[in-house]
Each structure stands twice: as structure tokens, then as C-alpha cells.
Design goal:
The protein is mainly beta and 194 residues long. The chain has a domain of 135 residues: Aromatic compound dioxygenase (Protocatechuate 3,4-Dioxygenase, subunit A). It has three helices and nine strands, in the order ββββββαααβββ. Strands 1, 4, 7, 8 and 9 form a five-stranded mixed β-sheet that branches. A four-stranded antiparallel β-sheet has the order 3-2-5-6, with no helix packed on it. Strand 5 and strand 6 form a beta hairpin. The radius of gyration is 19 Å and the shape is globular. It starts with 42 loop residues before the first strand and ends in a 17-residue tail after the last strand. The model has no long low-confidence stretch (mean pLDDT 86).
């Protein structure tokens, strides 16, 4: 094996695009049910994933992490556990052919007093070199939303794109736009490559 000379131009290339290529390993029964549908506290979180042209992305995978309705972040081992009793705070759902995702979850409580409750979201999709991170905020506590450090750092239009819409049935609607004029604001964490 020869070493490249110092004059060789080495161009960085992506290792692989992220995406739902491993259908045998990623989905599992009840992956989108953080609580069983129909339980007293269950809330449907749903939406669509769109590309920059407004076309639905049919093969995205959405993951969510959240505290329970009391704001407690689960420390239980086994986030894949779906026993109908243990709230692990984690779910995963593959978008359907129309780009729709759906979760059965609870309204997250605030993890700290006075803070706006939110759901952390990770998006995997074809063409992305790395996963994307964002948040879904609940629409009701306008005082907490106004005081939230992340939301306060954004322009009003961007801020509003992180707040879900509450349906008459109590469900939460949150659409994800990967690019374009109404692009969902995405977050970068330390150590996360863009």
C-alpha cells in the first residue's frame, strides 16, 4: 500500500447517505406507539415530510424522544419495549407512500418549571448525508413559548414552524419541510456534522 504524496488532492466524500435502507432492522411492531392508541392520555402526533419542491418524501424515517405527561424523562432500559405499561419516551415511524407519519404518544410535560414542553425529532431520508434534528413545541402555553431560549432566538416565521397545530380532536399536526421557502428550522448539536 502506498501513501499519497503531500501534493495529492484528497477530496472528502460522504461515507453513505442516511436512509431507510435496512427495512428488516429499523421498523418493529408498535414502533410508533409510545402509548397504546385509545388510552386516556393518548394523543396522535401526525404530519407529512416534504422535499424542497413540496413533494411528499415516501421513505423518510422519523424518530421522536420526549418526556412523559409529567415532564419526566424516562431512564428505563430498552427503548424498544412496548409492553403497554412502560413509557420509554422513544418512537420511530417510517413515512408512508404519501409521506405521512403518525405516532400515538402523550402531550409532553415541561421537564423544568416554566419551560415550554417539546418533542425532540430526528429525520432520516434519502439524499441526506446526515440526520436532521428539530423540535415540536405544543401550542398552548404562549408564555412559556415566548420565554423559550431556542424559540426566542428565531425570527417569528421560523419560530412558528416549530409549533404544532392542535386539532379539534386533540391531535397534534406537524409537517416537516426539508428545504425551500418554508423549510423546517433544523438544529446543530456539538459534534454533529452538517
Amino acid at each position: 500500500m502506498t501513501e499519497p504524496s503531500s501534493t495529492t488532492d484528497l477530496t472528502a466524500t460522504p461515507g453513505q447517505t442516511v436512509g431507510p435502507f435496512y427495512g428488516y432492522a429499523l421498523p418493529w411492531p408498535g414502533d410508533n406507539e409510545l402509548v397504546p392508541p385509545g388510552t386516556a392520555s393518548a394523543v396522535q402526533l401526525h404530519g407529512f415530510v416534504y422535499d424542497g419542491a413540496g413533494t411528499p418524501v415516501p421513505d423518510a424515517i422519523i424518530e421522536i424522544w420526549q418526556p412523559d405527561d409529567n415532564g419526566v424523562i424516562s431512564r428505563a432500559n430498552g427503548s424498544l419495549r412496548r409492553d403497554g405499561f412502560t413509557f420509554t419516551g422513544f418512537g420511530r415511524n417510517a413515512a408512508d407512500p404519501e409521506g405521512r407519519f403518525v405516532f400515538s404518544t402523550v402531550n409532553p410535560g415541561a421537564s423544568d418549571a416554566g419551560k415550554a414542553p417539546f418533542i425532540s425529532v430526528v429525520i432520516f431520508a434519502r439524499g441526506l448525508l446526515n440526520r436532521l434534528f428539530t423540535r415540536i413545541y405544543l401550542p398552548e402555553d404562549t408564555k412559556a413559548l415566548a420565554a423559550d431560549p431556542l424559540l426566542s432566538s428565531l425570527e417569528p416565521d421560523d419560530r412558528n414552524r416549530l409549533i404544532a397545530t392542535r386539532g379539534a380532536d386533540g391531535s397534534l399536526r406537524f409537517d416537516i419541510r426539508l428545504q425551500g421557502e418554508d423549510e423546517t428550522p433544523f438544529l446543530r448539536f456539538p459534534g454533529h456534522e452538517a
